[in-house]
Each structure stands twice: as C-alpha cells, then as structure tokens.
Give the backbone structure.
Amino acid sequence: MLSYVLRRTMMGVVTMIFVSLISFAIIQLPPGDFINYYVAEQMAGGSIVSEDAAQSMRDRYGLDQPIYVQYGKWMSQVLQGDFGASMMLQRPVGDVIGERLLLTVVL
C-alpha cells in the first residue's frame, strides 16, 4: 500500500512539473513579450511610453534573461505561494485567483 501511495505521489509531482513546463511554454509562444503589448496598448490610448521605461519594465520582470532563468524564477515564486502581479489588473494574481476560485468550485 505504501509503495502505491509513493508511486502515485511521484507521478503527481512529475505531472505537475510537466504541466508547469507546458504552461510556461504557452505563455512564451506569442511573438515579443507582454511589454510590447503593453506599450502598444498605451500608445493606442494616447499615452507615450519611452523605450527606457519599457526596458526598465523588462529588467524588473526579468524578461531580458534567458528562458530557463525566467522559468526558474517563476517556479521558485510559485512554490513560495507568490504568483506575481497582474500587469493588466495591477493586483496580485493570488487575489484574482482567490476571487474566482469559489465560483469555479461551485460550478
């Protein structure tokens, strides 16, 4: 019985790692990065974002680093319970998920 539980636990860990890799890859698939999208959206709204400000945001969010470094930082934050901040909503992602989690469970 114990070996079954350990085997299933290990399979669960491997599955979670695989899902995290796939999720991260999907986030990285679109061309450019979120900063490009954010700058274009701001410019469409009439605001001007300088290239220095855009580069500063890339530095702050680590988007200028190799993909494996980005993944490592992302996973270390997730394992600590820090899902980061939503750039669109300007709120912690954990709060956004928490608000919608109850309705998801009810459904």
